[in-house]
Amino acid sequence: MPQRPFRRRLLTCARWTAIVYLLLVLIMWYARVGDRLIAQPAPGPLPAPGAERFVIPYSHGELEAFRAVWPTDQTPQICVLYFVGNEDRVNPWVASVARTWSEQTGLAVECVGVNLPGFGLSTGPANLDRMAPTGLLRTI
Q: Which of 1, 19, 55, 77 is 20 to 30 Å from 105 by CA-CA measure?
């Protein structure tokens, strides 16, 4: 007989845990907490050694992009499209990514890095809803 109260308490605890979990998920979803936790932009200029800066217009402004070729005296044979994660920008990495890919493959490599909206000098809001469509731009 003593197992019934324990089982009842366990089920009650599990139900309350599920309810609290669902409430937290709903609050996070509607309060757009993901944008605050994941999309933390690092705005402003930053040098890009060994890379050429260019701008890509899109529906919400302009995206800052950088292009680097390694070795610099050859025509690129492959192209690497490079995006970075949270709180970082492509500026300092594009040339080293091109060089690393070239060393690993033995080919001349062009690396194009794009700063997401709100990062670097890219305009537009830095939110998760806009990041995926930005990656679908057809021309670079």
A: 55
